[in-house]
Amino acid sequence: MSKSHRNGSNNGRPVGGSQLNVGQHGVVMGVYDEHSIAYGIAAAITAGGGRVGITYHPKVAARVLPLVEKLGVAWALPCDVSKEDEIRRLYEHDVTAQAGWGNQPLAFVMHSIAFTPPEGRDRGLLEISMDTMELTMRVSAFSFASVARYSLP
To answer: Would you give the DSSP letter of residue 10?
Structure first.
């Protein structure tokens, strides 16, 4: 680790400094509530002058939509990442239609999504069904590749 990273700087700039996001725009996926990592990331980006759109699972819309104004995000769209066609639609159509950012490519996409059904939370790894494990991995890990594939310009 270089000395500049150990002392909290990056070439003389604070790591995560507010100038990092000025004028940039992108997507933060996985906002769930005010305690979620995705919420904190979106809040930091907007506070730093960046423009953000967020995604959320359709089943948590009632929990997420009241946070949109508080976060100051440009838009919020549902996306069930367990369905690849929803990820494709999000990046091939919805983001372009909602964003109003013209033809500028996204500066960032943050995949902050994790899920397991109740069985996965209530039992140990060796006790859950293959279906539960498959859904957990599809949403929490495998969707990352699809998001990367479809969000690239």
So the answer is: E
Nearest to 41 by CA among 139, 98, 111, 105: 111
The share of the chain scoring above pLDDT 70, in percent, equals 81
State pTM to two decimals: 0.79
Tokens of 153: 């310009």
Give me the torsion for CA of 95, 65, 39, 117, rounded to 10°. -90
Token pair 């002058």 in the structure block, residue:
49
- Cβ pair 42, 54 in contact under 8 A: yes
For residues 119 and 124, what is the distance between their CA atoms, to the nearest angstrom?
9
Give the Cα separation of 9 and 25 in Å (integer).
24
Distances (CA, A) of 131 to 45, 84, 87, 122, 146: 36, 18, 21, 15, 20
Q: Are 82 and 60 a contacting pair, CB within 8 Å?
A: no
CB count, 10 Å around CB of 38?
22
